[in-house]
């Protein structure tokens, strides 16, 4: 039962409840008017009778999230990078702003205020939860809509668990998520890809870029290759290489939190008291595990590279540390993803005539080129890139094929304004011109985002 008592100029509702440990607790809630106190009394009695009473809790957002994170990690068997990413989001983008607030006092407008604050927050304002001193230039670069969307996604998932755990009655996270920011990716044309590859003299960089352009690989997948992944006799002598591993450098804290089922190998530390570890892990998803067909040029380069590895070991076998990886330094140690990026940046500095792109842009360049030359065969390209779904591939790359859209506009003009007695130039594709099947177009339309759907419907009409 609940009781109302007058205390000075306010009215208090007193009631007894049992906490999560079954202990009897007394609680007082004060209100400025008797009407408000009476309404609250009725609400408490109804919830106690119905078994829906929310046990009062003073747990803060920071306390809840830091308790929820390892539980969620263990339940869903996160990879180390997934744990690191979510921990960083909590430490740097949530706790500094709403971490001290009590969970049960959160309202949807608090979430909206958080999103607004983050939209005006410079990148890197907090690192590992510590406030950073930024330069004036750094203060001009703000968090993207995609980053804020990730904050929304994480809080939405976490607070649903708070409801299940009896901390909240309803999640305060708004239904509508912040809009993701769309940024056009810089990619290379096939001519630029070919010319850039020809100009690379560093053997490690040349092989890494060659593999990426042929197989649209990620950095970790490149250096995660082993000699055993190569099969020069497969596919009637064409040759293949298998992608089923990835190399990452992760914080040891994350490594201790995650399930080690996905970890194949932890490499020895190069420095004492290192807070990070270099690991070899299985690929992120089943679709990421794939077989790539070699080109004759890549096949020859791989054979020469294996001969070089053998020669390096013969030079000084006592000091050679065979890491077992395909990409090795002359002393046999594994090549890390960061070294590939550094070598690529150094090459770009020496070749300003090429459009500036990040190393991952080579993957985008390769995937886009393969989509174009295959006539939009999404399934075939998806088998090479390892995207989880066909629509993910479409939504990622369809909007950056500017040359295809220009050609589409030209064809539309020719077909739309042509006289009716003439055969439409769309009826028969020009010899050697990439075509796309109706099945492929329907596959694209099924799950593509609205902007991409509009472009593809125009392609169908023309």
UniProtKB/TrEMBL annotation:
Which positions fall inside the Tyr recombinase domain?
Answer: 183-413
- Extract the InterPro entries matched here: DNA_brk_join_enz, Integrase-like_cat_sf, Integrase_catalytic, Integrase_recombinase_N, Integrase_SAM-like_N, Tyrosine_recombinase_XerCD
Task: Tell me the superkingdom of the source.
Answer: Bacteria
Q: Does the record carry DNA-binding as a key word?
A: yes
Q: Which UniProt keywords apply?
A: DNA integration, DNA recombination, DNA-binding
The question of whether Cell membrane is a record keyword is answered with no
Q: What does this protein do?
A: Site-specific tyrosine recombinase, which acts by catalyzing the cutting and rejoining of the recombining DNA molecules.
Q: Which family does it belong to?
A: Belongs to the 'phage' integrase family.
The molecule here is called Site-specific integrase
């Amino acid at each position: 039962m609940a009781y109302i008592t007058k205390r000075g100029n306010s009215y208090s509702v007193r009631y007894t409840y049992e906490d999560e440990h079954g202990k009897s607790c007394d609680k007082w809630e004060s209100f400025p008017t008797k009407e408000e106190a009476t309404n609250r009394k009725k609400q408490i009695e109804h919830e106690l009778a119905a078994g829906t009473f929310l046990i009062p809790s003073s747990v803060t957002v920071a306390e809840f999230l830091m308790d929820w994170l390892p539980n969620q990690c263990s339940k869903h068997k996160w990879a180390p990078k997934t744990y690191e990413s979510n921990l960083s989001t909590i430490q740097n983008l949530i706790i500094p702003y709403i971490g001290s607030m009590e969970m049960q006092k959160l309202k949807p407008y608090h979430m909206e205020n958080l999103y607004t604050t983050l939209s005006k927050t410079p990148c890197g304002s907090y690192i590992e939860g510590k406030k950073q001193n930024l330069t004036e230039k750094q203060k001009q670069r703000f968090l993207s809509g995609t980053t804020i969307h990730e904050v929304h996604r994480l809080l939405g998932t976490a607070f649903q668990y708070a409801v299940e755990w009896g901390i909240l009655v309803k999640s305060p996270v708004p239904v509508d998520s912040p809009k993701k920011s769309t940024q056009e990716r810089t990619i290379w044309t096939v001519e630029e890809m070919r010319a850039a590859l020809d100009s690379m003299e560093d053997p490690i960089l040349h092989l890494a870029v060659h593999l990426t352009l042929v197989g649209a690989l990620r950095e970790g997948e490149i250096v995660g290759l082993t000699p055993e992944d190569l099969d020069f006799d497969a596919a009637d002598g064409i040759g293949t290489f298998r992608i089923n591993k990835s190399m990452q450098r992760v914080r040891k804290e994350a490594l201790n939190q995650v399930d080690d089922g996905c970890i194949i190998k932890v490499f020895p530390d190069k420095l004492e008291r290192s807070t990070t570890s270099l690991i070899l892990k299985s690929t992120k998803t089943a679709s990421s595990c794939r077989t790539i067909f070699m080109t004759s040029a890549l096949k020859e380069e791989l054979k020469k590279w294996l001969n070089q590895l053998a020669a390096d070991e013969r030079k000084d076998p006592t000091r050679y540390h065979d890491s077992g990886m395909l990409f090795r330094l002359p002393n046999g140690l594994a090549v890390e993803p960061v070294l590939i990026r550094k070598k690529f940046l150094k090459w770009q500095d020496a070749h300003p005539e090429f459009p500036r792109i990040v190393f991952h842009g080579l993957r985008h360049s390769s995937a886009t080129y393969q989509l174009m030359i295959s006539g939009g065969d999404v399934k075939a390209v998806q088998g090479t890139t390892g995207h989880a779904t066909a629509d993910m591939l479409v939504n990622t790359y369809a909007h950056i094929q500017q040359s295809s859209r220009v050609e589409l506009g030209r064809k539309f003009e020719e077909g739309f304004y042509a006289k009716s007695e003439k055969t439409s130039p769309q009826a028969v594709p020009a010899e050697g011109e990439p075509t796309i099947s109706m099945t492929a177009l329907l596959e694209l339309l099924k799950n593509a985002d609205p902007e991409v759907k509009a472009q593809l419907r125009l392609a169908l009409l023309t």
